[in-house]
Amino acid sequence: MVEPMTREERDAGNRKVKIGFVLLVTVSPPLITLLGDPTPVQLAIATAGGFFLGLLLVWYLGRLASEFTAGSRRLR
Predict the structure, then answer these.
(1) Are 50 and 25 in contact (CB under 8 A)?
(2) What is the value of pTM for the model shown?
């Protein structure tokens, strides 16, 4: 029988999902920029912008998720 996840396992899994999401969002703008024959500076700006956008989205989605989990705990 499978035992429930511990708090540490859940936190480690959430951390991996967040890192993967940030990496996915970070890589997308430079790949799109490559279609237009960018300079190295433009490529670096696209990468930095994607990284900050990824961080912003993870922060926002974390806050949104915490509101839903806090709401479901109140109902119990």
Answers:
(1) yes
(2) 0.79
